[in-house]
Write a structure and sequence with these properties.
The protein is mainly α. It contains 5 helices and no strands.
C-alpha cells in the first residue's frame, strides 16, 4: 500500500501542475486577445488614415473642378436667359475626375449613407452636364458651318435658305440653353451637399485620428 504522505504529495503536485497550466493558458489567451485587439486597432487606424486622406483629395478635386467650371461657364448659364442665349462653344476635357474614379471603394466606406448618395449623384450630374455641353457644342458647330456657307455662297436664293436654317438652329440653341440652366442649378445644389457631407466625414475622421 502506498504511503499516505507520498500519495498526498502526488495529488498536491498534480493540482499544482494543473493550476499552473490553467494560469498559463489564461495568460496565453489574454495575451493573444490583447495582440489581436492591438492589431485590429492598428489596422483600423491605418484604414481610417487612408479614407481620411482620400476624402481630402476627392473633396479638393471636386472643389477645383466646380470652381473652374463655375467661373468659366456656370456664370454664363446663371446670368443669360434662354431668349438671349448665344451660339457658344464650351471647351471640354476628357477626364475631370481621376481621383474620384480611382477611389470609389473608399467612398463606399463613408459612414453616412446620404453623403455617399450625394457624392455619387454629384458626379453623375457632372457627367450629364458634360454630355449636355458637348451637344450644345455640336449645335454651335452646325451654326458656324451655316454661317460660313452664308458668307461664301454667291447664290442669293441659297443664302435665303441658309438664313432660315441658321434661325432654326438658333432656336434649338435657345431651347437647349434652358435645359443647360436647369442642369447647372441642380449641379450647384448637389455639389454643395456632397462637399458639405465630405467635410463632415473628414472632420469626424480627423478627430478619430487624434484620439
Amino acid at each position: 500500500m502506498s504511503d499516505p504522505l507520498t500519495f498526498s504529495s502526488i495529488l498536491i503536485n498534480l493540482a499544482s501542475g494543473l493550476f499552473g497550466s490553467l494560469i498559463g493558458a489564461g495568460i496565453s489567451i489574454w495575451t493573444t486577445k490583447k495582440t489581436i485587439s492591438e492589431k485590429n486597432a492598428s489596422e483600423q487606424r491605418a484604414e481610417n488614415e487612408i479614407i481620411f486622406h482620400t476624402l481630402v483629395s476627392v473633396r479638393s478635386e471636386l472643389n477645383a473642378a466646380y470652381q473652374r467650371y463655375d467661373s468659366e461657364t456656370g456664370q454664363v448659364f446663371s446670368n443669360t436667359p434662354p431668349q438671349q442665349a448665344p451660339a457658344i462653344y464650351i471647351p471640354i476635357r476628357e477626364d475631370y475626375f481621376p481621383i474620384y474614379r480611382n477611389n470609389t471603394k473608399i467612398i463606399g466606406k463613408i459612414k453616412r449613407e446620404q453623403t455617399i448618395e450625394n457624392i455619387v449623384s454629384c458626379y453623375i450630374c457632372a457627367a450629364g452636364m458634360i454630355d449636355s455641353i458637348r451637344f450644345n457644342n455640336s449645335l454651335y458647330e452646325r451654326h458656324e458651318k451655316i454661317s460660313y456657307e452664308i458668307l461664301t455662297s454667291p447664290n442669293q436664293l441659297e443664302v435665303q435658305k441658309l438664313l432660315k436654317q441658321q434661325e432654326l438652329i438658333m432656336g434649338d440653341i435657345r431651347d437647349y440653353w434652358g435645359k443647360l440652366q436647369k442642369q447647372h442649378h441642380n449641379l450647384h445644389r448637389i455639389a454643395s451637399l456632397a462637399y458639405t457631407g465630405m467635410t463632415e466625414e473628414i472632420d469626424r475622421r480627423r478627430e478619430d485620428l487624434k484620439a
